[in-house]
Design a protein that fits this description.
Elements: H1 2-6, H2 10-18, H3 23-26, H4 29-37, H5 42-55, H6 58-75, H7 77-81, H8 85-94, H9 96-99, H10 102-112, H11 116-123, H12 129-146, H13 150-177, H14 179-187, H15 198-204, H16 208-211, H17 214-225, H18 234-242, H19 263-273, H20 276-300, H21 308-331, H22 339-358, H23 364-383, H24 395-431, H25 438-452, H26 495-530, H27 532-548, H28 558-572, H29 589-634, H30 636-649
Helix pairs in contact: 2-11, 4-6, 4-10, 5-6, 5-12, 10-11, 10-12, 12-13, 12-15, 13-14, 13-29, 14-29, 17-27, 20-21, 20-23, 21-22, 22-23, 24-25, 24-26, 29-30
Amino acid sequence: MFLALVKDRPKFVRLLLDNGLNLKKFLSCDVLTELYSENFSALVFRNLHIAKNSYNDTLLTFVWKMVTNFQRSKKEDDSMKDGLEVQIVGRYLDASPITRHPLQALFIWAVLQNKRELSKVIWEQTRGCTLAALGASKLLKSLAKVKNDINAAGESEEIANEYETRAVELFSECYSSDEDLAEQLLVYSCEAWGGSNCLELAVEAKDQQFIAQPGVQNFLSKQWYGHISRDTKNWKIILCLLFLPLISCGFISFRKKPLDGKQTQLWKYGAFITSPFVVFSWTAIFYIGFLLLFAYVLLMNFQPVPTGLEISVYGLVFVLLCDEIRQLYMSGIKYFTDMWNIMDMLGILYFITGIVFRLHKSNPSSLYAGRVIFCLDYIIFTVRLIHIFTVSRNLGPKIIMLQRMLIDVFFFLFLFAVWVIAFGVARQGILRLNEQRWEWIFRSVIYEPYLAVFGQYPSDVDGTTYDFEHCTFTGNESKPLCVEMDSDEHPRFPEWITIPLVCIYMLSTNILLVNLLIAMFGYTVGSVQENNDQVWKFQRYFLVQEYCNRLTIPFPFVIFAYFFMVLRKMLHCCWKEEAPEPTVCCSRNEDTETLAWEAVMKENYLMKSNIKANDSAEQYVTMSTTSVDSLVTSDPCFLLLFLLLQVLVQ
């Protein structure tokens, strides 16, 4: 069996398993150590190290530690043989999470080695097949990004897509049988995969096909609406949010019927307020009100001494700051991977800077600078409002298009800067001599060539239309420097150079580069439009998780909850609490029942896949036979040749 694994003989491995070999008993810690040390590619080890340092996610870190532990154990074998029992005990303690899941460890080894068929055979023997398939997809996609060989990276991507498809088909089989048990599979986590669950691995691997399937979306919808029935119209929920007494009138329906009694109405109010959709709606209303109040202060109520309304704006921004600190504390370094979080923090920091300048009321310049910073900060806060519209099925994909188009603009600017700098420096050097003012050099070299892209033709390159009233010879006025003159007091620059130069520049930028940008936008919009629904459903996961993890107290009253959390944290620092004993993975009855049921569904899925493959093969043979028969009957020469071949075969 060991040779079959090392030599990559999947048929032989399957034969041994069909004849009663217990793979779990065969996979001792010594066997796994031998596989991960002596039969582990150095190139895979290097790529795994690079991927772990590049992405630093939970699964890659766990797999890296597992591989290094096995290899370290192999190096310590010589010292262990000398009688150091303490190290032997330490070795088995380090590998204890893996010794409880040897099949998963073997599957990870086969996946890392790109053993396609062998990994499929092992995958069929593992528990938690949906989680294992998504974990394999995540590992392979991460390794494909750091591989230098394009062919090897493409092969890893192909195998990763196969496992994603297998996870989608298996979960669809499970969901069609029992929705409740299938939803438990989504949140089932295993220490053999770094403690991650199916949803987390699918999101990290960007398996949009898995997230977009109906079973996962129904589960996210249940989380999004909480106890509120999904049949309830959104306008009813918003109306009840504004007029809470409507809840007791039966305006809102709930998925779970509460018990009769005095606590029924309290339960309805609690279930309504704690719904993530209600939290999202109230947050959106609060944020729009904050923007309206901020705009009123900037346009109509900005006094040297802060008024009550302006102080209210300060308080609301402080609540936003507390919420961002909470998100940073909960998410860690992943907080900065979200563009909207960066925009939130940037807007708050700008606001604090504006307050610092604004409070110097004795200095009019400082007061004006603070007002300007507030106005610029208002742009950031208003653009942040776009994130709210990602909940819409129609507007959500458009926002994703805008984000990707901004990336296209970023790369386009590199090409555009080459033309602007080349034309701007050449034009300034030909027309004017020794301009010393940096602001006017910037205008002539960058700003005016940039405006030419939008159709503003530079008029100073034609001597017949040059206006000397709008320039200065001395450089002491707030005007551009006049062009260099010859002895006859005529512009010295040669028009046969400057005019063709402008024509070539405008041809290159207005026609070539602008149309290139339009083509890039068209490709980006088309790529998103092809998978419009799938992309939106994948992005919807992040919005649902964000508001499911928020406190259910509405803004701005959530500030009291933050104060309570800080106070409780300070009090807990005064004494040490006993840490709860870690639960062994898959030891709960719920997990055991769910995994046993998934194993049955996996057998049904494999049986249907085999039947489908056999039907396809039989259909191909039938079609081939039919085509041969038609050729034999239609062509006499082919009939003679066919009979001759039969005689030779006999």
